Amino acid sequence: MTKFITRAATALGILSVSAIAAAAAENCETRGALDVLYCDANGDLVADTPTDPAKLSNPDTLVFAYTPVEDPAVYADIWAPFITHLEETTGKDVQFFAVQSNSAEVEAMRSGRLHVAGFSTGPTPFAVNLAGAVPFAIMGAEDGQFGYKLQVFTQADSDIKTVADLAGRRVAHTSPTSNSGNQAPRALFPDLGVEPDKDYEVVYSGSHDQSMLGVVAGDYDAAPVASEVVDRMAERGLYDTADVRKIWESDPFPTTSFNLAHNLDPALAEKIKEAFFTFDFAGTKLGDEFAGVSKFIPITYKDQWAVIRQIQGSNGVEYTPQGLAGK
């Protein structure tokens, strides 16, 4: 039976300093950007599965989380058909954890309390390097296509026509680690005529939903947002498309990555992957919510997140707790 974990019911935190120190003392010849808790002997840029059976995790109850959204309760219901399928495939109970922020989601997996998770595009590298997340799937179309675009919206009657016109304006970014909501604009907008924080005021809204609703309400002059999010908002009638105008969009980026905790028992990990790759979206609330999506597609962090790592690298992003918090 699907269960729903609230923030009040679950306290999540990072591992203690002593545990980190002990992990750092272990022999690890290849780590790359990974935290001292993890090793990467095969060079695939993600944490290796522990070779010591005693360090493998095979919980009676799997905890699943989806990237932070404006109304987590709604998404608990949307994900219910998949969670049922995950339970049937793995033989485990599954709990849905409603995360309140990207930081909380990363810390939950790092602490061992979160086993399967969807991380937004920008936070995915932080989850990989700080929490040992292993991306393996992404939502896609029947023909294998996937991705979303960074789009910039303003009010329908605004005099803003181009990205360069954002100069001197109040612009909503979502959160420091967000790809389309912050990192990509900082990397791409200078070539389009404006530098965030220098040429226009950046105000962090907290989410793509809030950025878009803030533009509609006139709280912000414009906002860079993820196409997939604002499309779903429009489909649910959360804003009137006639009230806004799109002034620019990027080439496609990978969307939410679905990840396993690196230390899951390999047999369990394979069952979880089986659940993803055999799930039928047709006729489910999940399929209705994600229009154009028909299946989960296999991906790797090394390949599909190369462009995101490039964007973050150009912004000087460091995969540290401070970087995750935007400090």
List key phrases describing it.
327 residues, globular, seven-stranded mixed sheet, D-Maltodextrin-Binding Protein, domain 2
Concise account of the structure shown:
The chain contains 13 helices and twelve strands. α3 crosses α9 and α4 packs parallel to α5.
Tell me the layout of helices and strands.
Layout: E1 3-5, H1 17-24, E2 61-66, H2 72-78, H3 80-90, E3 93-98, H4 102-110, E4 116-119, H5 124-131, E5 133-140, E6 150-155, E7 170-173, H6 179-188, E8 201-204, H7 208-217, E9 222-226, H8 227-235, E10 244-249, E11 257-261, H9 266-278, H10 285-289, E12 295-298, H11 301-304, H12 306-314, H13 321-324
Parallel strand pairs: 1-3, 2-3, 2-4, 7-8
Antiparallel strand pairs: 4-11, 5-11, 5-12, 6-9, 6-10
Helix pairs in contact: 3-9, 4-5, 6-12
Q: How would you describe this protein?
A:
The chain has 327 residues and is an alpha/beta fold. It has two domains: 3-144 and 254-324, 3-Layer(aba) Sandwich (D-Maltodextrin-Binding Protein, domain 2), CATH 3.40.190; 150-249, 3-Layer(aba) Sandwich (D-Maltodextrin-Binding Protein, domain 2). Helices cover 33% and strands 19% of the residues. The chain is built from 13 helices and twelve strands. The chain has helices at residues 17-24, 72-78, 80-90, 102-110, 124-131, 179-188, 208-217, 227-235, 266-278, 285-289, 301-304, 306-314, 321-324, and strands spanning 3-5, 61-66, 93-98, 116-119, 133-140, 150-155, 170-173, 201-204, 222-226, 244-249, 257-261, 295-298. It has a seven-stranded mixed sheet, with helices on both faces. A three-stranded antiparallel sheet has the order 9-6-10. The chain has a two-stranded parallel sheet with strand order 7-8. α6 (179-188) links the parallel β7 (170-173) and β8. The longest helix is centred in the last third of the chain and has 13 residues, at 266-278.
